[in-house]
Structures are given as C-alpha cells and as structure tokens.
Fold these 2 entries.
Entry 1:
Amino acid sequence: MEEKTRSKGVTIFGWLFIIGGAWSILTLMITGKTIKGIGNIYYFISSSLSFICGIYILKLKSWAKQLAIILCLVSVISIIIFMPSVVNDAVKNFYKQEDIKKQIILEKIKPEYQKEALESLKQKREEIDKSIPVVKRTMFLIGIGIPVAWALIVIYFFTRPKVKEQFME
C-alpha cells in the first residue's frame, strides 16, 4: 500500500490546529475558569475539537478536513453573534472601574483634595468618552477581523483541489 504524503501546508495547518487547541485548553485550566455557562462550554468543546482535528489532519483523514471547515464556519458565526456583546461588556466594565475610582476618592482622600481629584477624574473621563467610539470600533474590528481572516484562510486552503486530493481515502 502506498504511503500518503502530505504537503507542507497541510502539516502547518495541522500543527496550528493542535497548538491552538492545546493553548486554548491550557488557558482555560491555568486561568482557573471553571466550565460554566454556554461561552466556556463552547470554548472548551471547540478547543478540544481543534486539537483532535489537528491530529487527524496530520493523518490525512478526510473527516478532519471537513471538521476544520465546520469549526471555522461555526467560529465565524459565533464571533459575529457574540462580539458586539463582548465589546459592550468591556466598555461597561471600564465605566464601572471609573465609578470605583470615584468612590475611592470620596472615601479615602481628604475633603480638601477631593474636589481636585474628582475634577481630574472628570477630565480623564471626558477624554475617554470621546475616544470610546474609536476604541469600540477597533476592538470590534480586531475581535472579528483576525479570527474571521483565519477562518476564511483555513476554509479556502482545505477546499482547494490539490489539498482535497491529499485527503482522498
């Protein structure tokens, strides 16, 4: 029986899936995030599937190629659905931090210095309020742009005829 050979590109993508999946699983474990909620469950499952997918891409299993494409499509859809709420939560969290700073000023700074500290905080907040739309757009574009570009590259790569030939069983 003739040994199948794989291209460098398939090898690279296989290893990228393995490394990405392992990195994501380790990140979940190291950060101590327990598997709670739909987001973490989705993250854990997709990371595990990416890891497994990478192993079997290296073995040139056709189902692994199909799984890679499906994972990328699901990734794009989930990014488009969830990214707006992630960006909004980040902005809300920033404003919560500002409220905490204001509370600290009122509780811990002597009354004669409070007015100056609050004014400084107010100026910083006005500057940040002006930049929030730019920050939101940037976060949104980076949060969507990079993962979607990766997904589209993977989908394009694994649907090319030369690559498909390698996965024929």
Note: Helices lie at 8-30, 37-58, 62-108, 111-158, 161-166.
Entry 2:
Amino acid sequence: MTERMIKQIYGLMLFGLMAAFTSCDAPSSISKVSGTLEGPLTIDSVPSAVLERIGQAERFHMYDIMSDTASSVCVQAISEADTTPTEGYGIVVVKGATSTTFPNLRNTRAPMATYDSEHNILWLSSSAMEGTGVWVDWLHKIRFDENDKAYIACSVEPYSLQQQLCQRLGYTTTGEDITLWDDTQELVTVSSTVTDMGGFDEDEPVWIGEQISYSLTDSTPRLLVTPGVKFTTGLVLTYDDMPTLTAPLTILDDGTVSIGELTLNK
C-alpha cells in the first residue's frame, strides 16, 4: 500500500468521524416552530378623512423619529394636521430642501429610522400589528431620486420573514427546558419558570410571528424575533423566559430578502 493510499484512507476515516460527531450534536427529533401569521399583511390605508386633513393642512405638528444633520436627512411623525390629530398616521421624510409625505405609514409604537449615507438608503420601520404581547413591524427601504424626493423601493412583509424562519428555526424540549436550533445549529437553552399553565402544549409548543421587529442602530438592518410558548392552558402565547433572536437582513429593491445567521440579541 502506497503512502498516498494510506493518506486517502486516513482522510476518509477522519471525515467519517467528524460527520459522526456532528450528527451527534443535533438530535434527530428537532421540530420546526409554528407561525401565528396566517397570510401576507397589507399596508395600512389611512382613513379618507385623515388623508383629507393631511392633504389640506397648512401646517403639520411633528416630532422627530431620526435626524442625521451631517447628511441633511430627517424623519418626522405627524401628530396633528393643523390642530386635528392624524390618528397615528403620517410620516415625513426630508432630505436637503425636499420634503416627502407618506400618509399611509403608521407612526404609532415607536417607529425607527437610520440613513445609510454610503448607499443613499433610508431604512424605516413602522407598525404592522400591535397590542398586548404583539409587536409586528414593517421594514421599508426608502431611496431618493435625483431631486431628493423619497420613494419606497420595497417593503419587507412580516409574513414572508415568518415563513422563512419557520423553515429554519426549530426546538426540542426536555422537562421544563426548551432548546432553540437554527437548522442543526444549537442557539440557546432556556428553562420555563411558568408553573400554573399545565406544561408545554404537546403538539405545537413554540410559535413565532407575534413579535417581529428590527434593530436599525447600524447601516445594515437586523431582524429581531422573539418566540412565544403555548401551554396546555391559556389562550395566548407566553414570552416569559424566552430570548430574542437576531439576524442581519439583505434586502434587494425587488423585495427579495435573505436572513443571515441567527444569534442571541444582547
């Protein structure tokens, strides 16, 4: 047997051992999470009376969402059109001397924005759904034309993100512990401290879709998602003890979204 053949056999044996160890790391019983959103969401449409007020107003009463003085870009929420409340609708984007009003975008539940000066892109999150235990946001990719007028190049729809994550995010349970997995990569194990709801649901204990938001502290937006737990009693998901996961997003102008590596949000 030649030295080359020995090296090839040794390499195959080593590869086999590595594969065996890798397969042992992830259990074969990983289940995929379920999704609460039943279908694609539609952008809110401002009530006609509010739209009329915004269109006819001589003055907006606004507050800042974001201000980048170095780039002469700011984002503001409209609280009143003249003296009439806008019922949580209306966002204004200003670049240089050009102002663009987006009356259909909601300004409730703390919208956020960041400007990527290198690529001349404004990222803006606005509320899609909100309520007790529910925080679901849109993410808008806003560009500017040659006259600095803003336009929405695309909007990231929460249901599409949920469906992508449902293909990747899995869980295993042992007693009161839940382990979350990104495919076969272990993310975190948490212990439930809930003692009065009858234990985890036997069929679908881990869900996503009620809490989908974004971090816009950097020029690249990051997805934030918190899974909820369904117990055998109770009609709502519980978020006690559950971590928030984060991943970078790559978003093309045609709306195609890629979700990067999931990690714990710290």
Note: Residues 4-24 have pLDDT under 50 and may be disordered.
